[in-house]
Amino acid sequence: MPGKSAAPKKAAPRRSAMPKQPMDEKSMLADFFHDELKDIYWAEKHLLKTLPKMQKAATSQELKDAFGEHLEVTQTHVERLEQVFELLGHKAQAKKCDAMAGITEEGAGIIEETEKGTSTRDVGLILAAQKVEHYEIATYGGLAQLAKTLGYTEIKELLGTTLAEEKEADETLSQIAEAHVNIDASEEDEDGEKKEDSEEDNDDSSSDDNEDDDDTSDEK
Length: 220
Description:
By secondary structure, the chain is mainly alpha-helical. About 75% of the residues lie in helices and about 0% in strands.
């Protein structure tokens, strides 16, 4: 008679990635989370002042529209962060974000160093704007994960929504660059004019010189 088979061992219970109850808001991690919220809050409010300048400086109407649309989205991000502060029981407060200040300062430098009305300026503006987006994507991604760890379920959802919108904005900028801006910029000479136009002007000038030479020969 066969012996009884051993009863299967019960698997060890898996540890939940999210606490059932929010962690103590007086913890060091909660304080760090709150401090980082102040940082990104300053960054978003700073962008409300920066994006109109980038929109005005852009050459492509498509890029102008993209900056204008993201300005509206950024206002929503500010309001969403204020909702997060409220959920935490804190007053919305900003702390200067040195990283964002540096990125936007670089963007201002691009406007100064490039010719108005050129696609090369648009290339620079897109690059600067994507640096902004990548910083925000990293920040919101990290904050959403921290909110999950701290058990702030509603806050995690709010930050996750903003994260998705930042990724969408970054993708839009890439599409504009790849569709025509980069190609148009590659066709500009050092003065920001299309290379073909410059060559045609030179050809016309050479033709005029040759005609003048022919007229002089006929007179002789």
